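Task 17 of the worksheet. Students: predict the tertiary structure of the chain below and write it out as structure tokens. Keep your answer in the requested format; marks are given for formatting as well as content.
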Amino acid sequence: QVQVVESGGGLVQAGGSLRLSCAASGSIFSIIAMGWYRQPPGKQRELVASITSGGSGSVNYADSVKGRFTISRGNAKNMVYLQMNSLKPEDTAVYYCSADIGWSRYAWGQGTQVNVSS
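Model answer:
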């Protein structure tokens, strides 16, 4: 079993920055990759960024956040961060951390709200 908990959401003005943190616990050795997803109001959940657990960590970003958001791992492999810069009102969403534990199984956090005011 893997559990993930997000933190770091909040309210920020357009152009500002926020850093989200995600801590995984439990059978963390089974984690293949970790990612951040978001669900804007009235819309479907979408992938924001992901990073693999092996090696130096292969990253992937949604086109809408490239150049503004950075995903990274902590020294302790159970931590993942999302640095969000140049935030836009359209980045407003509930942000979820996920852990890919293989066989199409994912552990999800409870989500953290990010609000960007114009």
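Marker's comment: The chain has no helices and eleven strands. The first strand starts at residue 2 and ends at 7.
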